[in-house]
Every structure is written in structure tokens, then in C-alpha cells.
Amino acid sequence: MRNVSLDVKRKTYDALQAIGDPKRVNEFYAELIGRTVSSHVAGGDIVVDAGAFHGRQTLALAAAVGPGGRVFAFEPLQPAFVVLSTQLRRHGFEDAVQAHQLAVSDHEGDMPFHHIHQAPGRSGRIWEGSPTERAGGFTATELRVPVARLDTVVGGSGPVRLMHLDLEGGELAALRGAVGLLARDRPLLLFRNSRGVAASMFGYDAGAFCGFFDAAGYELFNVLGFRFQQRDWTTGRQPGWYLGVPAEDEVAKGTLHGMIDDVAAQHGLAAIFA
């Protein structure tokens, strides 16, 4: 993986921006995420998908682990959970996936959850509408949903290989509820996070965010393979997807580095790392 200067990182982010084709860049990021899973997960593995929504990533994970593996999928919003369950039946993954209509966080019980009617995929524990959403008249209904810690629900399983989190800013809270799993199994973490926006909503700062991973013995990288540290917190134009890799896992770092370079070459983007 790449531990380079901020200047080199900024030049890479600017090079992607200069392409001027958001669809092409988004497809590049999407393949990086998909290849991260396929390069790290094998048949028989146990994985977690928190924030499963309609199950796009859940289905990909279920296919990757095969009939001998298991996916723990979490989706608290009832309409989305119905779609998720239907998708699992349609694709024959009912036995491979344990679907839970739960939110995941650092405590047990229940909590507020906002259903965004015009964009249900943006629903989450806390919602602060963006200017575009406010201008579009987006509306939200506040519900209460059951919540659990990943240590409680998944902790009794075999070793977890990967955790995929897309929780509209609630990723750090979910990981705080999985410290036992992180210490025991050392899974690869693949998660989305909006940095300052998420921190302001959930009451933490850059120091608390980076300090959590340091304390857990994890190194953070974004999906371009650049090391992410506190000094990167306010750097613009970087991708919103991150990899948490156990600090001792040099094999994973090398494998992921090669995979990222391969995907960049296939998309004609190798020059962004020059």
C-alpha cells in the first residue's frame, strides 16, 4: 500500500477530478470495492454486511463465500428488509445469509432512525439533509428500530474474514460495538465514511476516529491504497471508501496494493499514480 506525502495524494485526487467523467471514476471506485471483496474472501468464509439495504453487496458476498460460508446481513428499515429477504430467496441465498432486521452500533436496545422517503438508501440513525435534498423537499420520518452490537450478534460465530459497513455515518459507532471481533478475528474492514460530516453528526473528531483504529491495531487506507492518517482528514476530493487492515497483515497489504494497480491499469488510469 502507499504511504506517500500529502502532495502526492492531492495530485492523484486532482488527476481523477481532471478526467471530467464522474461516471468513469465511479465505475473505477465500484470495481475497486468489488475486487477488494473477491481478492480477500474465499469459499467457506464468514463475513458481515452492515447497512445491507436491498442486498446488492449482500448477494456479492454470498456468492463469494459459497454454500459453505455465511453472511451476517443487517438492515433496520422494514421496507428495505423486505426487499432484501425477497432478493435472498430469489437468488437461492437464504441458507448462506443470516439477515437481521437490526441497526448496529455500540449499544443494545433501540434507537431513533430516519426513513428518507425520497431516497430510502440515505436513511440512517441521524439525518441532516444536504442543500440539494432540502431544495428538493426531501422528507424524513423518525422511527425507533432495534439496535445491537456486532460483538453480541456475530461474536459467537467462527472467525470473521471481512466486515463491509455502509451506515450513513454510523460506521465508527458500529465498529466500537465490534472491538471483540476486531481483536479476535482481525477481519479486513471495508467501509464508507464521510469524515467531517459523519463526525459532526455522531459527536467525534479526527483524533477520536484515527485513535480508534490505532488502538485496535489497524492501519487505514482509502480505496486508492493511500495511507489515511489524521493529517488527511480535511484533504478534499479523496474517495469516501476506506480499508482497515490489521497492522500485522503484510500479505493483505501487498495483495490489495497489486489489486488496486491492476484495476487502475484496466481502466486506463495507471498514470494517476505517476
Automatic annotation (TrEMBL):
Which keywords describe this protein according to UniProt?
Methyltransferase, Transferase
* InterPro entries, per database record: FkbM_mtfrase, SAM-dependent_MTase, SAM-dependent_MTases_sf
Domain Methyltransferase FkbM as annotated: residue spans: 49-219
Please indicate if the UniProt record lists Transferase as a keyword.
Answer: yes
Q: Report the Gene3D superfamilies cross-referenced here.
A: Vaccinia Virus protein VP39
Q: Tell whether Cell membrane is among the UniProt keywords.
A: no
Q: Which GO terms describe its molecular function?
A: methyltransferase activity
An example GO biological process term is: methylation
The record's listing under PANTHER family reads: METHYLTRANSFERASE, FKBM FAMILY PROTEIN, SLL1173 PROTEIN
Under which name does UniProt file this protein? Answer: FkbM family methyltransferase
Q: Organism, per UniProt? A: Roseomonas haemaphysalidis
